Amino acid sequence: MTNFERVTDFPASVRLRLLELTEDLPRVLRPAVVPLVQRPGKGIRAALVAAAAEGSSARRSELVRLGALVELLHLASLVHDDVVDRAATRRGLPSAHEREGADVALLAGTACVALVGQEAADLGPRTATAVSRCTANLALGQMMDVERAYDTELDVEDYVAMVVKKTSELFVLSCVLGAGSAGRDSSFVTAVAAFATEIGVCFQIQDDCKDFLPGDSGKPAGTDHKLGLYGLPTLHALRVCSAELEPLLLAPEMDATAVRRIRELVVASGGLDHAIGEARRHRELAFEALRPFEREAAGKRLREVTEAVWMFS
Question: CA-to-CA distance for 255 and 182, rounded, in angstroms?
């Protein structure tokens, strides 16, 4: 019995398995990754793996390995995202590229993706195929995100297409792997994939809203705007007050005064309210996809997991 199998708490077991996996990283790359494993995020992707298998006879050890797999793939994407976005912090710590340098961070993220591939292959061809497809789509989503920088005319359909690749794909992978481990049929797999797609869009819009809400969003104010990355609140505001907002967004320098004014314009134009409404709409679409299975243990648990991280009333 391995160490992670001795721990009864599922999230703790997943974290322990993550630490076991990162032991296989080259020594020079571990400092870029291990601090993020030791300071975990919400673990929602691993939780979705377990939720999709709720009420089944799926082996717990396999679910833990699958949960660690999706969380490691997510972690790798965060390390790469932080390099691209030049983010200074992650989970309350200096980001990997700030601590270890961009080259080491990029290599560490790539090495984590390789570890994910090895783990997926060990878990079988179904898992390996699903993981490889997801990884390719995540890379495409990141490229789409980079390509949209400073595009003040980006339409909502293109924004959602990017979010589906960059964010939803990993939610879909989590649910599909959990359902597969539980031996569920194609109708359930199709339903949870549709659910996860909509929940991914919902959560990304919710994340877009954090810059415009009171309190600490966990990152410096205006970070995305300075990088030319406009979430749904800003995209909506651009359709309402572009004459004042666009020059602020495209200015060569963006100081604290400009950041505050951008925030005021987005909120006053209804951008925040519109985005919250869209997040709520995508959440309801997700729950509608689960409707045929809403009385089952898995359907109930999937809803509980997503409601637990819902920010709005």
Answer: 52
